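Narrative of activities, Objective 1.

The group set out to show that a structural description can be obtained from nothing but a protein's sequence at a throughput compatible with the screening campaign. Below is one input-output pair from the validation batch, recorded exactly as produced.
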Amino acid sequence: MARWLQPRLAVSVAWLLLWLESSRAVHHEGDFIHTSRRAQFLRKRTTWNDLIEHHCPRFGQNRIVAMPINKPGTNGQEVTDYRIQLSFDGDRVLTPWLAVLGKNVEGMPLLEVQLRRAGDELKGVKAWVLPLPDELLLGHATLYEEYKNTTHWPKHVLVHYRFHDE
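Output recorded for this entry:
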């Protein structure tokens, strides 16, 4: 190897290692976790849209948020199946598709999202849909009425973010 190439190679390797270390997401307790969502209906998928901080999980803190879902552009067709997918931490961690509106969804759903963490890193996610418990239904009666009204948009679904330590 040429003598002049060795220092440049060493500097390049050092920059690569520094970049890899800085690209690792480090979260502190209470930090908002970047979250995006997309929708699927009538065999169409939307692009990813970032959620505002109010609808995002906070690292290490369990919380419930009312997340709006937008009216699908269906050209008058009835939506028989509306699903959403969530993405966390810059698309590193994804949920499966979750049905929030349609024939198979009875009442207003609760999205249960369990985020796994190890130290200051987000490691994974599990998510599923549950019927809305009565105690949450009583506290969100207006959102429930709007959800049942077929002409009212945007509708809201409650998302329960829970953290699990590895």
